[in-house]
Write a structure and sequence with these properties.
7 helices, alpha/beta, 7-stranded mixed beta sheet, 193 residues, disordered C terminus
């Protein structure tokens, strides 16, 4: 991954010497991005890949709904046709009163793919470093709601969350290399990925 990322001069790579865990590592990138003037932060797990226009669709929903702190895409399984089983348990379980054609408000969405507004981060803070891995997204969602923001799923944005990554998959490599980087470069908003 590192040689691919280094091909793009517009990307600043942070190489930590140790595995800091999800929250602490993301906090370093979040802080850097906010200090450089980012309007939002996009978090994407390494075991995911995105569909075309995912990031721009997330940005459109986030910036058109000032009450949103976090917006996430639909999470599909690796087969790309059915919702990820874990995602489906909370996406379809909760009250759908705040449901529109483009957005569903939910009380929680796992942090496999989040677009988080600068306003939300400024008020809520970063991930609690006490969580090394797992639980940090649940804790953060509770804090986001406590500070008066909502959490949503953008229905026209999607990722695949392949919990068993196939390391030699050309499809994942191509999607990771071209779709994510292309959206990063061409997005109309100041985002950090």
């Amino acid at each position: 991954t590192i040689p691919i990322i280094k091909e793009y001069n517009a990307i600043e790579l942070i190489q930590n010497k140790n595995n800091l865990g999800f929250g602490k590592a993301n906090n370093i990138g979040i802080d850097l991005a906010l200090n450089k003037g980012a309007d939002a932060i996009f978090l994407l797990n390494q075991d995911t890949w995105i569909f075309e226009n995912t990031i721009s669709n997330l940005a459109e929903v986030l910036f058109e709904n000032s009450n949103l702190g976090i917006v996430s895409p639909l999470h599909f399984s690796a087969e790309e046709s059915i919702l990820d089983e874990n995602f489906n348990t909370y996406y379809n379980r909760f009250n759908k009163e705040e449901d529109s054609e483009l957005l569903r408000i939910v009380p929680f969405v796992n942090a496999a793919a989040w677009l988080v507004s600068k306003e939300c981060l400024s008020k809520t803070g970063y991930f609690d470093p006490i969580f090394n891995h797992y639980g940090e997204d649940r804790n953060y969602c509770e804090r986001v709601k406590y500070h008066g923001f909502k959490i949503g799923v953008a229905k026209k944005a999607a990722i695949c969350h392949d919990r068993i990554v196939k390391l030699n998959s050309n499809k994942i490599e191509l999607q990771s290399k071209y779709l994510v980087l292309n959206e990063m470069i061409n997005c109309n908003h100041s985002l950090f990925f």
